[in-house]
Amino acid sequence: MASLRRINQDDLRNHNLSVVIDTLLRNIEPMSRAELAKATGLTKATMSLLVPILIDAGVVREGDPVAAAAFGRPSTPLAIAGGVLCGVGMQVNTDGYGTTVVDLDGSTIAGEWVERPMGGSDPAEVFAALDELVARHEREVTARGWRVAGAGLALPGLVTDDMRLLTARNLGWADLDLRRFDVVARLDARGGNEANMAALAQIPGYATQRRRKGIVGPGDSFLYVSADIGIGGAYVRDGRLVTGDRGFAGEIGHVSLSLDGPRCSCGRLGCLEAYVGRRALVERAGLAHGEEAVRIESFEALAQLLRAGESRAVACADEAVRVLSSIVASAVNMLDVGTVLLGGLWERFGSGFTERIEREANAQLLGRPAVQVRVRMPEVGGHPALRGAAKLGLRRFIDDPLGFVGGAEG
Ligand SMILES: [Zn+2]
User: What InterPro entries does its record include (predicted)?
Assistant: First the structure.
């Protein structure tokens, strides 16, 4: 991801604008020019050159001046403005496909999800349908005055930085050059694994306005584990997604817990996914097998039996707690990360589930009792990968503001 950059006046201005926007996005409250200067380390003189560029472009607005407490001039609060720039998120998952359009201010302005079992689907046909869906919402938001800053695409598989899908076993897709699909080329979309995108959605102030204090802050580190048929993982260090050499670091679903465990879809034995993926849970509870176990209704049945205290379902949840607490402990030992977010279908297991995993994981940590891990459900649910993909699209603006706003003077 690293790139060599020429440093000239425009680059410097672009960098400074990027820092100012980033700072405003991460701050819950509006900030005065003086507060921005202090937070960014830029001079007040530089700030008075940069801020008008953002105000003229409509991405920052001035609030009513606030009188200074003791002496000095009243200060004018600056805040990120909505209604100008948006990011388009796209996702193909095992249970359907969809799009969402997110404003820089964090509000969702359009979107749609199409429920459909996607295993064994034809990529060309799916991307054509996605293109049609996205184009409709794109036309709608641009007619209402927004400009699309960029787009992101979330897929349930290994996506490289140069937009190749190496494999998505639960879709039956392999070795696809994603740029050959019109919707990807047209929007110059950046792709990624769904867990990576869902993790981006959890980082407050990453490309959209932070609204409140939550489980994690903008510069925090955490491990995100997402669960559907497959188990995905993403590692965020100091507010940045760690993507690895090729773009798909964090595949915790294929960490093996047992050399003679159940066979995983990847061919190995005892992978996390083979114990606690959606299909695996249903099969291990003896509720259904094969294609029947993949159906979302089969998992709903399991969740219902669990609520009713049915013994096979309870044993299955107990095993999931054992398996997940072991993998959380291993991950914390390896990454030294203080927070683990468990996203996806596990929210159906009730709030006590994460508490049990936290307790059992903490009892296994190498550095216990000094080292402790928090295990929580993520705050952004629904289709978090879709929202993260939209944020990745918006990030284009934050990384290169001059590509979108004026600033003609050298
Ligand atoms: Zn595996």
Answer: ATPase_NBD (IPR043129), ROK (IPR000600), WH-like_DNA-bd_sf (IPR036388), WH_DNA-bd_sf (IPR036390)
